[in-house]
Amino acid sequence: MERVKATRSELLYRKQQIKLASQGLELLKKKRDALLREFLPIIDETMRLSLRLERATADAQAALAYTEAVEGRMVLQSVSLATKGEILVDITGTHVMGVPIPVIRKAEAPVKTELERGYSITGVSARVDQTARKFEEIIDIMIQSADIETRLRRLGEELQKTNRRVNALENIVIPQLEEEVKFIFNALDERAREDHFRLKKVKKKIIEKKSES
């Protein structure tokens, strides 16, 4: 406590700091609780999409293996060359509890009709169409997953940051300020007792001198 000045102005200043720190702590706790309410359902949604993606991938791989066995690899390669293209997404932004979060949405549906895939519908079987659809469904889920996982990561980072601030205020800053207030108060109290004792001695000497005179 060597750097703490034991003055009344410092005592008032430290008390004001404790008041402000306590108000900040209360606001941060409310923010943390609100972030948790947003965060927990997103975890469930992320897990649900992860399971969907796993199942969709397994289904698509099985369909591809079966179609290749029946139709032949050359047919599938020819179809894949005819269906080359790109998947467009829209990326915008939003705020959740003041946290900026990218929003990823499909600019167009990844799941296409037979006419939109680019190959001749008379030249392929229904098995090829079904296999293509299953892989398009994977892309659809991946876009949804990218959006929800981005939201999860950003909220998780902000939640960790907020929790660190709460812990710092609760366990370090406020207790230290309270110790400083206690130190200043005790120092001022001791100084007041010493002053009172000195005044009593001075008064006693004055009385003694008056008696002698």
Using brief descriptors, characterize the structure shown:
8% strand; 2 strands; two-stranded antiparallel ribbon; mainly alpha
User: Roughly what is the average pLDDT, rounded to an integer?
Assistant: 86
| Total number of strands | 2
Structural class: mainly alpha
Proportion of β residues? Answer: 5-15%
Describe how the helices and strands are arranged.
Elements: H1 8-71, H2 73-82, E1 89-96, E2 99-106, H3 126-212
Antiparallel strand pairs: 1-2
Helix pairs in contact: 1-2, 1-3
Model description:
This protein has 213 residues and is mainly alpha-helical. The chain has one domain: Helix Hairpins (Orthogonal Bundle), CATH 1.10.287. Helices cover 76% and strands 8% of the residues. Helix 1 crosses helix 2 (73-82) and helix 1 (8-71) packs antiparallel against helix 3 (126-212). The protein starts with 7 loop residues before the first helix and ends with a helix.
Q: What's this model, at a glance?
A:
With 213 residues, this protein is mainly α. Helices cover 76% and strands 8% of the residues.
